[in-house]
Fold this sequence. Notes:
Blueprint: E1 2-7, E2 10-15, H1 34-93, H2 100-115, H3 125-149, H4 153-156, H5 159-193, H6 198-205
Antiparallel strand pairs: 1-2
Amino acid sequence: xxxxxxxxxxxxxxxxxxxxxxxxxxxxxxxMKKGTIILLAVGALLLLMMFNGCGSYNSMxxxxxxxxxxxxxxxxxxxxxxxLIPNLVNTVKGVANFEQKTLTDVIQARANASSIKVDASKLxxxxxxxxxxxxxxxxxxxxxxxxxxxQYPQLKATQNFLELQSQLEGTENRIAVERQKFNExxxxxxxxxxxxxxxxxxxxxxxxxxxxxxxxxxxEKAPEVQF
Length: 227
């Protein structure tokens, strides 16, 4: 800065250096607010749950469809047995002195089994248990009929009876096979929906536990028939 001073009649020039200091502002550190961090974390968690939930839901649907298909096969083989019984009963009726109580038991057991309706969309343990109980009674009645039939040589010599007997035996084998397959897909489904985190989505979307066939007590014993 240039300063002119008067000294007597002579001007004096003096350069005066001024020191100007400009205050330096401290650098601002950008800090993310705590609320924003929490919001982002919650959003990321919800996004993860959404993708995981979609995968779990699709898997549960696939496994449920496998259960429904397995039940359809079970119903088919049981219905096949139901269809054979009337012809079997009519054939046995043609034999003189055949036990009427044995025939009546088969007819009644078939009627009871036919009255049990199972909701294929639910297949709850209670429904499967009632269905199995009614079909078990029918199996026992048919077993007694076959034992009684052994006492009638003229019946065993009837071609129609032999054919029905063979078809019934084949159907019983198919029932055992389809029940086993059904149990396998049900157990796979049940174990999946009970695991974490699928159990959360199963409760949200109504994927309930399914029933399956249990081993019948005393099924390994032949039916007893008293004459």
